[in-house]
Amino acid sequence: KPKAVLISGEWSRRWSKPLALYLILASVAGIVLKPILGSAFSADDTFDSFLPMNLRYSGGSFWQFVSDVVTGWRTNEGRFFPVAVIVGGLSHLLFPERTEYKIVQWLLAVAVVVLVAGFVSMFVRNIWAGVSAGLLLLSASQMRVQYDPFLQFSLQQPTVSLFLMVALMVYLKAIRKSDTWLLFASLCLFLLATLTYETSLLFWPMFP
Fold it and tell me: How many Å is the maximal CA-CA distance in the chain?
């Protein structure tokens, strides 16, 4: 048989089952997290959603807004999370309407569930363990709690989770292959997560 056919067949045998399971998990997550789509702005999203109008009214620039908030946090609270400010601001500038913002929020939450499943599967080398972890995370979702980390904070916590899961998966690949460049990439992703919010520091022991 042609080499391309053999490679295609091998890829299909290796990945068809995991992809099918991840697709099913994503579908279940989408259904369970569907109330996000009909929810109102709450917590930080309530006043963050006014950013496009405030900038238009004041004539200020987005990057001046980022600079002011980052400086205020650093000066008054001793905190430095510039990525959080950028992500939070862009989330409302790019998706100013509630409906489109909630769709993005929902998609990110589903992506986090799938990536958690992917990391656990990769870590223990068992696809069923990963799917179980994703379902466990779903069962812990607090869709109607005002400050639920996966749903609010202007996409901040989902972004932290995405950076962390990808960083951990790349790191795991790096140490298994002894690949310096992958290791560097994983540390850069972890740095991005840390510059987004301090919750990422809970995961630093996983990067020995």
Answer: 68
Q: Say if CB 134 and CB 117 are below 8 A apart.
A: yes
Residue corresponding to tokens 């929810």: 39
Can you tell me the mean pLDDT for 162-178? Answer: 93
Spatial separation of the C-alpha atoms in residues 42 and 81, rounded to whole Å: 21
Sequence-distant (≥ 6) Cβ neighbours of residue 208 within 8 angstroms: none
pLDDT bucket at 14, cuts 50 / 70 / 90? low
SS (H, E, C) 26-87: HHHHHHHCCHHHHCCCCCHHHHHCCHHHHHHHHCCCHHHHHHHHHHHHHHHHCCCCHHHHHH
d(CA 112, CA 200): 14
pLDDT digits (tens, 9 = 90+) for 35-44: 888 888 877 7
pLDDT at 117 over 90: yes
pTM for this predicted structure: 0.84
Residue 131, helix vs strand vs coil: helix
Residue 33 — left, alpha, or beta (φ > 0 → left; ψ -120 to 50 → alpha)?
A: alpha
**Residue 56: both structure tokens together:** 């238009």
Q: How far apart are CA 166 and CA 157, in angstroms?
A: 14
